[in-house]
Amino acid sequence: MSDLLVHARMAAEKAYAPYSKFQVGCALETDVGGLYQGCNVENASYGLTICGERNAIFQAIAQEGPEMKIRHLAVVCLGHEFPPCGACRQVMAEFSLPGGLTKVTFLQAGEPVTRTMAQLLPEAFGL
């Protein structure tokens, strides 16, 4: 398992998910080599919940500034396997490398799968 997946799993173990029971963790490496983690944090008012991916991205921006770009992102959900949700994909696209070259790794059938942002969200919204 890649280092980013290990860090994502460690972040997932810290998730606050009393409602969905889906503990999601994310780890990302920025274009300048920063490493950031995030986990999902749920809320009784479900719309206020934050996904692990966005939590990690927002931490990276808080540390590196608005020009931060994601080189590689990994996501793990304890006991489940799925790629990032649509909302997270759109936020990831906003901070992706030019051409959608940011790599995204998640588990599928117990094995790591890596896709580019261009593959995960081919028609990302942009201004």
UniProtKB/TrEMBL annotation:
Signal peptide: none annotated. Residues 1-127 form the CMP/dCMP-type deaminase domain. Substrate binds at residues 40-46. The active site is at 53 (proton donor). Zn(2+) binds at residues 51, 85, 88. InterPro entries: APOBEC/CMP_deaminase_Zn-bd, CMP_dCMP_dom, Cyt/Deoxycyt_deaminase, Cyt_deam_tetra, Cytidine_deaminase-like. It comes from the Bacteria. It catalyses: 2'-deoxycytidine + H2O + H(+) = 2'-deoxyuridine + NH4(+); cytidine + H2O + H(+) = uridine + NH4(+). Pfam families: dCMP_cyt_deam_1. Keywords: Hydrolase, Metal-binding, Zinc. Belongs to the cytidine and deoxycytidylate deaminase family. This is Cytidine deaminase. It comes from Prosthecobacter dejongeii.
